[in-house]
Design a protein that fits this description.
The protein is α+β, with helices and mostly antiparallel strands and 130 residues long. It has helices spanning 9-15, 42-47, 82-95, and strands at residues 2-4, 23-26, 39-41, 54-58, 62-65, 69-72, 77-80, 99-102, 105-110, 117-121, 126-129.
């Protein structure tokens, strides 16, 4: 089981990857919309198969340093559509058998020699996580 403290894009992306298992405990609902704005390098998002979740692409990213000095990066930059990305990631989680267990984490026990942890939820549930 993988524990998520929030259902943010990074957590949902990790949730459906095989090496993380297929059961997820989380503190914040998977029914809550993403609130942050996300910008990404288009080529990296494309490599993940997520380019359909962009709602704006700039052909040449610009940065400004001190006294309005413009620096062209020479790389495409995109703004992520939060609604589309959230829907896409939740669909992939569902298709890969991810189960969400709603609950607030009360205690976390880890061992130095293990990649697993024991999570105690506020309602008394105990789950193993990695």
């Amino acid at each position: 089981m993988k524990h998520l403290s929030r259902c943010c894009p990074q957590c949902l992306l990790q949730a459906f990857l095989p090496e993380y298992g297929n059961q997820v405990s989380h503190d914040a609902g998977n029914d809550v919309p993403f609130v942050n704005n996300y910008g990404v390098w288009v080529d990296e998002f494309r490599d993940l198969g997520l380019e359909k979740n962009l709602n704006r692409i700039w052909q040449d990213a610009l940065c400004y340093f001190g006294e309005d000095k413009e620096v062209r990066i020479g790389r495409q930059y995109g703004r992520v559509c939060r609604r589309k990305l959230r829907k896409h990631l939740l669909q992939r989680c569902q298709a890969n058998g991810v189960q969400f267990l709603a609950g607030m984490m009360d205690e976390l026990e880890t061992e130095q020699t293990s990649d697993t942890a024991t999570i105690r939820l506020a309602d008394g549930q105990v789950v193993k996580s990695r």
